[in-house]
Amino acid sequence: MKKNAFFGVCCFLLLCTPVIVRGQGFNGPGADASRPGQPAAFFEPIPVSQVKTLPKDSWVVLSGNIVNTLPGGKYYTFRDSSGDITVEIEPKVWRGLSVEASDRVTISGEIEIKKGQVSVEVKAVTGSGRINARQGQAVTAAQPITVDEAKNLPNGSWVIIAGSIASSLGKDYYSFGDATGDITVEIERDIWRGLSVGVSDVVEIHGKLEIKRGLFSIEVEAIRKM
């Protein structure tokens, strides 16, 4: 009898205890706050000096200059007014963009900490440099374009578009649009990085244009609220 009574009390407490679920993705206005020591997410540029105080895997956006190349072929020194930091940019991430030390760029990526050394693994880079692409091949839009302009580009092109998410289409797919039209976008769970947005929020997406059977979509690699 005592065991049954104890079990009943435990069930009652479990049912009455509130469960806090931190939402992310297309859930409504606001951003999901990270607990101390957990990865944070910044969708507006922050200084290099602040990056070095954040936990591993935090998502950051930086604005500054890539001043030189480091050994390894994919490592560079990134600099802003607050200091320098090593960034890793895989060849595919450049997507045809070519920049010089005088060109200002914006990078988005995850913080890596190895043996006490802080660096940023870059997932997206935009800037005022030159775009190297042949006619008919995938191109890179280094600055935001419209949905209508995106639909005139070749398959595989890298695009940046500012607009709003109108609805969920199931799983990782959403209807995204601006003043010129709508397009389907794929945003996998890890891409949200704690960001939560609603239909009234304007966001900027960075991603690859996909054309299949005449249908256009964008595979999103980075998203930020504007």
Structure description:
With 226 residues, the chain is mostly beta strands. The chain contains five helices and twelve strands. It has helices spanning 2-16, 48-51, 91-94, 147-150, 189-192, and strands at 59-70, 75-80, 83-88, 97-98, 104-114, 117-127, 130-131, 158-170, 173-178, 181-186, 203-212, 215-225. A five-stranded mixed barrel has the order 1-2-3-6-5. A hairpin with a 4-residue loop joins strand 1 and strand 2. Residues 6-24 and 27-33 have low confidence and may be disordered.
In one word, what is the shape? globular
Quote the distance from N terminus to C terminus: 60 Å
Alpha-carbon Rg, integer: 21 Å
Tell how many strands the DSSP assignment holds: 12
The topology string of helices and strands comes to: HHEEEHEEEEHEEEHEE
Portion of residues within helices = 10-25%
How is the largest sheet built, in terms of strand order? 1-2-3-6-5
**Biggest sheet, open or closed, and with what strands and sense?**
5 strands, mixed, barrel
> What is the count of helical runs?
5
Mean pLDDT over the full residue set:
82
Assembly state of the chains shown: single chain
Secondary-structure content class: mainly beta
Q: Give the uncertain stretches in residue-range form.
A: 6-24, 27-33
What is the topological layout?
Layout: H1 2-16, H2 48-51, E1 59-70, E2 75-80, E3 83-88, H3 91-94, E4 97-98, E5 104-114, E6 117-127, E7 130-131, H4 147-150, E8 158-170, E9 173-178, E10 181-186, H5 189-192, E11 203-212, E12 215-225
Features:
single chain, 226 residues, mainly beta, five-stranded mixed barrel, five-stranded mixed β-barrel, 5 helices, globular
